[in-house]
Amino acid sequence: MVAAPPLFYLIPGLGADERVFQFLHLPGHSHVLKWLPPQTPAEALPHYAARLAEAVPPGQPCWLVGVSFGGVLALEVAQVRPLARVVLISSFAGPRELPWLGRLARATGLYRLLPPQVLPLLPGLANWFFGVKTARDRQLLGQILRDTDPVFTRWAIASLLQWRGRPDTAAIRIHGTHDRLLPNGAAHSQYRLPGGHLIIISRAADISRILTQLGAPETA
């Protein structure tokens, strides 16, 4: 009996879209789960994830591949799609993995004072935080940041920092060894790749190879 080809559902990071996956080469079928507008500024992540999960057939085994904030959503979608297996790329599983600045923002609510539009206005700072080095990657990051919806970004940052986490949900983790946004993630990852937060772009060939191996049918 021929095994079914793997099925990947790809969830981009905060404010990003399918452009971050353009350099991946995966077997089987791949679908990008596009962001939905939050129903309210206070919509809870599990409720949002349940709406996002409507694009994933409940009885179908698949892979949920989430990048950064998309990994958070992948863990939440998996709660209502138990046949899905989760891969986190440049992401985290709970607030204990946040860097000290993220934990401070979570505890004090300081993130509410930061305008979502600040990073597109400071490209040098954005490039440093995301660890991009090539002209191609800088251009792509700049385009994504300029296209980001500030309303969605404000909701996403608040939801992310208030998230309780899903540390008990099984996940394969891929992380950059020099990730400045989530520096603690590499210690919790099975796959550590040289690079920063945007290894989905800079290490797309390595990530394609890992996902291809994960999606290969198991042999008896």
Task: Give a verbal description of the structure.
This protein has 220 residues and is an alpha/beta fold. The chain has a single domain (7-215), classed as Rossmann fold, CATH 3.40.50. The chain has helices at residues 45-52, 69-77, 100-108, 118-121, 123-130, 135-147, 150-162, 199-202, 204-215; strands spanning 7-11, 29-32, 62-67, 84-89, 171-176, 191-193. Strands 2-1-3-4-5-6 form a six-stranded parallel beta sheet, with helices on both faces. Strand 3, helix 2 (69-77) and strand 4 (84-89) form a beta-alpha-beta unit. It is globular and about 50 Å long. The mean pLDDT is 85. Residues 26-206 form the AB hydrolase-1 domain. This is AB hydrolase-1 domain-containing protein. InterPro entries: AB_hydrolase_1, AB_hydrolase_fold.
Summarize the structure.
Residues 26-206 form the AB hydrolase-1 domain. The protein has 220 residues and is of the alpha/beta class.
Describe this protein with a few key phrases.
alpha/beta, Rossmann fold, 9 helices, 14% strand, AB_hydrolase_1, AB_hydrolase_fold, AB hydrolase-1 domain-containing protein
Strand neighbour order, sheet with most strands? 2-1-3-4-5-6
- Through-space gap between termini: 13 Å
Quaternary status of these chains? single chain
The helix fraction, in percent, is 25-40%
Q: Using DSSP, what is the number of strands?
A: 6
Total number of domains: 1
Structural class: alpha/beta
Largest sheet: 6 strands, parallel
Q: What is the CATH-assigned architecture?
A: 3-Layer(aba) Sandwich
Mean pLDDT: 85
Number of helices: 9
Shape category:
globular
What is the CATH C level class, in words? Alpha Beta
How large, in whole angstroms, is the Cα Rg? 17 Å
Q: Outline the low-pLDDT stretches.
A: none
Quick one: CATH superfamily? Alpha/Beta hydrolase fold, catalytic domain
- CATH fold topology: Rossmann fold
Q: What is the helix/strand order? A: EEHEHEHHHHHEEHH
% residues in beta strands: 5-15%
